[in-house]
Amino acid sequence: MTDLRVGVVDVYVIRIVKGRWRVLTLRRGGPGRSPGSWETVHGRIEPGETPPQAARRELREETGLEAARLFSVTVHPFYLHRTGEVQMAVVFAAFVDRDDVALGAEHDTHEWLSPANAAKRFTWPREAEALAHIRKLFPKGEGGVVADVLEME
Fold first, then answer.
1. Are 62 and 107 in contact (CB under 8 A)?
2. Bridging pattern class, strands 41-44 and 38-39
3. In a 3-state reduction of DSSP, which class is residue 127?
4. Which pLDDT value is given to residue 123?
5. Where do the H-state alpha helices sit in 1-146?
6. CA distances for 15 relative to 55, 86, 114, 128, angstroms
7. What is the mean pLDDT of each run of 10 residues along the chain (153 residues)?
8. What is the pLDDT of residue 83?
9. What single DSSP character describes residue 28?
10. Which residues of 113-147 are buried (b: 16+ CB within 10 A; e: fewer)?
């Protein structure tokens, strides 16, 4: 039997300066999984934690940044063959006011890129897909017409 579990968060970090979007991309260092791959902030939901709490914690741990505004975006499923479970990643958009990143131990470098270049840079296709959702939901930035439904407290 295959189990289904909500176990991780993906957090897309966005900074808008003079109307231009910049998306944070992180390169995984070694050792660990997928060294050299480019990704967004990603991490496990800890016991007793809600997905928004995990998103804020992972953002802080992996980048040193705090979300000025945090929005839920979508959910992405993926299969973990080692455990035989389908894991759900809850996807968030974090709009930040600073761009001075303090990398955590999992990553060895970062870049702020345009949304198009970030989508190309991400290793996993689902990350480019989620970024497209964010651009559609928030075409002019963090105050899109659905912000009242998606914003986390």
1. yes
2. unpaired
3. helix
4. 97
5. 51-63, 115-121, 125-137
6. 16, 32, 10, 17
7. 89 95 96 91 97 98 97 94 93 97 95 98 96 94 87 88
8. 87
9. E
10. bebeebbebbebeebbebbeebbebbeeebebeee
Residues with Cβ within 8 Å of residue 94, at least 6 apart in sequence: 11, 12, 13, 14, 41, 55, 59, 65, 67, 69, 70, 71
Strands 69-80 and 85-95: antiparallel
Chain centroid to CA 122: 11
Which two tokens mark 86?
A: 């389908």
Alpha-carbon Rg for the chain in angstroms: 15
Q: Under a CB-based contact definition with an 8 Å cutoff, are residues 133 and 73 in contact?
A: yes
In one-letter notation, the amino acid at residue 89 is: A
Superfamily of domain covering 3-144: Nucleoside Triphosphate Pyrophosphohydrolase (3.90.79.10)
Query: Are the C-beta atoms of 16 and 95 separated by less than 8 Å?
Result: yes
Spatial separation of the C-alpha atoms in residues 35 and 109, rounded to whole Å = 11
Distance between CA atoms of residues 62 and 139, nearest Å: 26
